[in-house]
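Before a colleague's protein record goes any further, I have to sign it off. What it holds is a sequence and that sequence's fold in token form. My question to you is simply how this chain folds and whether the tokens agree. Thanks in advance; the entry in question is below:
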Amino acid sequence: MRTNYLHEANVEYRRMRRRIPLGPLRNRTEYDRAVAVLDDLVDEIGEREAHPLADLAEMLALAIEAYEDLHVPIPESTGPAILRALMEEHGLSQSDLPEIGSQGVVSEVLSGKRDLNVRQIAKVSTRFGISPALFIPSSGIRTSTTARRKRAV
């Protein structure tokens, strides 16, 4: 009897796996299918956590996350790139950031010629409601381009 149960489960699992990428995602095609199915599930489920397909959506999300952790590198953002994105998101120009300084100072920060100092980071973080850690490189505090050039000479 148990053998029949496992045989039937195997047949059903294979049938479902052809439609929905259940289990570990082994390649980009399975990943893309899983993302598409998850999108459809989220559209169907909405905010209803008790929906019968909610567990399937959670399982797919975990498989997608595991695949991304292994195969999708997340580029490290720099302070200037983050600042540029915030400016774009809020429709700001260089002269709209007195927290940093003059338009010329903002321009130097955006071009990488100057780093934000602690005071500037604190003010910009407060203004946009973000963590100051976003402006600190993961390898620690880096020196400005100008200081590096002076040392190299």
Observations:
- Residues 140-153 have pLDDT under 50 and may be disordered.
- Residues 2-19 form the longest helix (18 residues).
